[in-house]
Structures are given as structure tokens and as C-alpha cells.
């Protein structure tokens, strides 16, 4: 489970496969790559147009791969859920809203400080 930070464009692999890489983060600030294959490449499409929210993705039945670093990959038995409502996703969403407010406030203070102390 993680917040979707980045979604790559869909990429054709060979003749009959497509993939899309997604960067997700949890409350431990761990960012990991999740590769969505074939039927899963469009699961986030309708959630990407909302600039003010960060989609939450929950997946099970993933493969853990280690090729140039560790990443997750969908497979035949994978199940992917976008923005499910439960206690853990609500907690993650709340954490993100608080983090975003603190991060934005910190950046504004930083830029304001540098602007006035040039």
C-alpha cells in the first residue's frame, strides 16, 4: 500500500505486452517502484487527473524482483485496488495531507527567508 507519487507513460514491450512504472511511498518515506503489466496499466488512469489528491494504491499477489534494485511487479494472481476506503488507507491519506501542509509551509518559509535575505 502506498501513495502514488509518479506514473510513467505506458510503454510497449515486444509485440503483445505493455507496462507502466509507478513510484509509491508509505509513511516510512520508503519509495519503491511498482511495475504494472498488461491488464493493470490503466488502473490509475481516472485518478491521474486530480491534481489536488494523491491516489492510494493497494496491491496483493505481487512479485518482488531484484534487478538494478528491488521493485514490485504485477503477475497473474495480482489484485490491485485504487483508493479503497478502510482504516489503513484513511490513516495514510491523513498523514499525506498533514505532510503536504507542513512541506508546503516549510518551502514557503524557506523561499520567503531567502527572498528577504538576499
UniProtKB/TrEMBL annotation:
Highest taxon listed in the record's lineage: Eukaryota
InterPro entries noted in UniProt: NA-bd_OB-fold
Name the record gives this protein: Replication protein A 70 kDa DNA-binding subunit B-like
Organism: Spinacia oleracea (Spinach)
Gene name for this UniProt entry: LOC130468107
